[in-house]
Amino acid sequence: MNPAIDWDVLADAAVEARKHAYAPYSGFAVGSAVLTDAGDIVSGANVENSVYGLGICAERVAISAAVAQGARRIVAIAVCADIEPPARPCGPCLQVMAEFSDDIPILLCSTQSLRHLSSLRELLPQPFSLPRPS
Ligand code: THU
Question: Residues 107, 115: contact at Cβ < 8 Å?
Fold first, then answer.
């Protein structure tokens, strides 16, 4: 059973995580927080690299941390950046979300407390998927 979603708590976790972003090249700090089906909140921030292509988005950091802690299903995600309208996750992050959920609500937040509720299906209607070997 999915835990109830407390959007204030999830948004606050994303805002807090954003403070730890490592974004010296773009200057664009992003925070994210995922809620797992066990009710845990796991957060992440973007981590850039002087080899630009090695940078990783906040969403994938948060999802990877949750999975590394044992989670396999995520039920909601919040993303926070200092931009309006609030930033939407990039395509690769949406595909990674699709690996661990069928559809989830995605809360897009700005640091100015602006919020927009979207969903994985809205932003990525047809994710790629592979049949699992039996
Ligand atoms: N970024 C994220 O962390 N999440 C997003 O949803 C969009 C972009 C990061 C990647 C890079 O470190 C910086 O923002 C600028 O693209």
Answer: yes
